[in-house]
Amino acid sequence: MPEQAFGIDKIQLVNLLRRVAEGEAQLPEFQRGWVWPDHNIIGLLASISRGYPVGTLMLLQTGGDVRFKYRPVEGATPPPHTRPDTLILDGQQRMTSLFQSLVLGKPVETQNQRKQPISGWFYVDMVKALDPQVDREDAIRLLPADRVVRSFRGDPIEDCSTPEKEYEARLFPLSKLFDNRDWSYGYEDYWKARGQDGRKWWRDFEETFVRPFELYQVPVIELGKQTERQAVCQVFEKVNTGGVTLTVFELLTATYAADEFDLRDHWDNKVRAAWKAPEYRVLKEVSNTDFLQAVTLMATAARRDQAAETGIDEERLTRIGCKRKDMLELDLTEYKHFEPLVVQGFKDAAKFLRQQYLFDTKFLPYGTQLIPLAAILSVLGEHAQPAGAQQKLARWYWCGVFGELYGGSTETRFSHDLPETVDWVRGTGPEPRTVRDARFSASRLLTLRTRNSAAYKGIYALLMKEGAADWRTGEKAEITEYFAEAVDIHHIFPQAWCERENIPRGNYNSIVNKTPLTGRTNRIIGGVAPSAYLPRLAKNAEVEADTVAEHIRTHLVDPALLAKDDFVGFFEARQRALVEAIEKVTGKAVVTEDGYPTTDPVDDSDED
User: Fold this and answer.
1) Looking at CB atoms within 10 Å, which of 258, 537, 566, 584 has the fewest?
2) For the chain, how big is the Rg over CA atoms in Å?
3) Which residues of 78-113 are buried (b: 16+ CB within 10 A; e: fewer)?
């Protein structure tokens, strides 16, 4: 942000509060509600009364290209349709607290330290305020809304419900601080009639407590109207004292609201509603930010294409991207244009994943890979439907899964995925870098032990793609899973047997020795040797042993090796079978050298 984009100044507190009251200073809609409890407000008032610094305000001049929907500070009632000159980016809690306690003229709605709602008026004990030995915070109090303090039985023990009672108690209402003439005259007359010098009392109190408020100046950093939206949002998050990071979705919601478009309502009632049907359940964890990223990929790709048509050099073309800055630059017109295409893209992505035997989020390798997939399908449209296109898309997808390429910072990969995969599918470009970058080692199978890794989930899907049937019922795992019959990954050679036979834990707990089965089938298997549980399965299924053997083969397992309790032979054969299945879907040879990095957490526990 250039130096000229902001200025530093000091503004008198009373003038700031006047601007708040008249609506000249308001809040951007993305600011969260006022939440300060009474003790925070008392601390703020005490600091100002002592002339202590209470932090800098951050304001934004309105009238530039960056527009946010705005709202008055809580409690302020400016004339209808008042347009603010500035928006308060940082300092909402302080300005709202000061406005409500000093200017509003109504009970302050706040909360106590237990976060229970309370309502009342702030007063200062004049006697304590003039005592240098008393902490200023101890001189400021919150009285109930009716200005009467009562005992636990409800009996009045302190009453400030009239000015005379305030005079008598020497409790000054802070709501009169900037308009105190009538109150001070009444106070002087009250004590003069009782033979005391009320005037001197007031003068001392005014000089000690009131005058610091009247003279107090607040340091203000004011961003110019030409400040870019990304800078506004970044500055807001860096300096905002509330400590709660705003999402891109919240910031764009506020931006679009300036054009009377409710992004949150659109997301909840149109976008998400489009995939509520059971066949789209794999999309249930798609977030509003995921959706915005896919839309932004589409929008930035369109901008690049338009720029290319003008003959601009390749190096100067608009880049495709969906990072935070890119999303914040997404214009409402662009969002409205690409949103329906992306909604359909996500629906098409769910259909595509179903063809890859991925039906639910539980075994979805990468939720993040849905973002470029939806954008790619949105751009391709009908061109994604032919068998050749589907084969290429499947290769790209599985290379991403088994290459484990979507686990870290992925926005840069997304920006390459969209144009490169689209061109490749259309036959106008080479293999995308996700296909080129993918690398899977056979030794990686030994480190896949829990479903925390994408490759682990990918193998689950491959087994279902191979037609994996439950060993007892013969039902395809995909059907059993669809009807929620508790299909999960279980050991083939049971853990208890492996431990008795001193099989290395790293081997028997790896994905090579696991497969999707129903909970009931796993209970029949128990902890015995395969040679013992195979007859049990046949008996329980009321079929011949050969039928059970056929069910077992659908899991890329040789039943003859199970019948001989040959763990070593089984392990080698299944590892080869899984490697072949991975090579088939990725179209790439699996490397065999050792030393492939482990990406699972250090968790060697049994999932069963």
Assistant:
1) 584
2) 35
3) beeeeebbbbbbbbbbbbbbbbbbbbbeebbebbee
Helix, strand, coil proportions of the chain in percent (round to 5)? 55, 10, 35
Cα–Cα distance between 66 and 26 in angstroms, integer?
15
Distance, CA of 122 to CA of 306 (rounded, Å) = 61
* Contact status, residue 438 vs residue 585, Cβ threshold 8 Å: no
Quote the Cα angle for 518-583-372, to 5°. 80
CB 30 within 8 A of CB 246: yes
Average pLDDT, integer, range 354-379: 92
296: its two tokens: 């932004």
Cβ-contact 235, 89 below 8 angstroms = yes
Determine the Cα–Cα distance for residues 71 and 33; give it in Å rounded to an integer: 11
For the stretch 437-458, what's the b/e string if a residue is b when 16 or more beta carbons lie within 10 angstroms of its beta carbon? ebbbbbbbbbbbbbbebbbbbb
The closest alpha carbon to 218, from 95, 99, 76, 87, belongs to 95
Give pTM, 2 decimals. 0.70
User: Residues 442-458: what's their mean pLDDT?
Assistant: 88
> What does the alpha-carbon distance between residue 462 and residue 453 come to, in Å, rounded to a whole number?
15
pLDDT in the model for residue 395: 97
Number of Cβ within a 10 Å radius of residue 550 = 15
User: What angle, rounded to 10 degrees, do the helices at 13-22 and 92-102 form?
Assistant: 90
Whether pLDDT at 599 is above 60: no
Angle at 491 between CA 486 and CA 497, to 5 degrees: 135
d(CA 54, CA 36): 15
